[in-house]
Design goal:
Layout (H helix, E strand, L loop, with lengths): L8 H14 L3 H38 L10
Amino acid sequence: MNVNVRLRKDAEVLLANAAMLSGKPKNAIINEAILLYAEQFNSQHLQDDINKKMRLLNLTDTKDDTSDLGDFD
């Protein structure tokens, strides 16, 4: 799959410098950046979802007296 990307001039300069300093092709740097961003985005999205569910569970648990069943001696 080919994708064409247009960059702002300042981004193009930064990309050219990064390519020159790292010895990597520009497309490799762009690919790495996209993957890193996507991983962080997905990770944050999943963490937000987990936090939301934990808050809901905690609210339900504090309203529910049956969560502490006590001793059955």
